[in-house]
Amino acid sequence: MDTQSVLFAIAEISIGLAGFSGLVAAFSQREGQAWRDDQKTRIVFLVVLSFGMIVTSLMPPALSEWSDSPAVIWGFPMTLYSILALGLLAYWMTVSRKQGYKIQFPKASYPILALATILQAAVLLSGLGIFLPYSSSLFVFGFLAILIFGANVFLALLNTIWE
């Protein structure tokens, strides 16, 4: 399977993740029940993460129509998404710690968070041309780690709703 097909599949999966998050938000609230802050944060987090993934996974095929430079085709979307993902990960850690959100599934969540953070840092360095310059494979693995992290956040959201 070529990288472009994988990126299109990642975009489709991201659409599904954003869509399911929206469905949960729309249909799971009961009469007279208010969303807790941690639930609202998780929903917004998932939607922003998913839409960022959709846009940046579709950028390389579009950019390849304008340029032959790997720095443009791969470097720009890699750098853009890794900054977004690392910023969201840092925001999530800061907010959850400050607000005292209960980490759901800590034995799975912490290793997934660590892996996603390390891979996004590597993607950022690759996008900047410093480490494994403009590696499309690394970009895909970075997306996969964030998808796993997003699935973990989605399951945590469901768990908080069903408590």
Protein topology:
Layout: H1 3-27, H2 37-63, H3 70-99, H4 106-127, H5 136-161
Helix pairs in contact: 1-2, 1-5, 2-3, 2-5, 3-4, 3-5, 4-5
Task: Report on this structure.
- The structure is a single chain.
- This protein is mainly α and 163 residues long.
- The chain has one domain (3-161).
- Helix content is 80%, strand content 0%.
- The protein has 5 helices and no strands.
- The chain has helices at residues 3-27, 37-63, 70-99, 106-127, 136-161.
- Helix 1 runs antiparallel to helix 2.
- The longest helix is centred in the middle third of the chain and has 30 residues, at 70-99.
- It is globular, with a radius of gyration of 17 Å.
- It starts with a helix and ends with a helix.
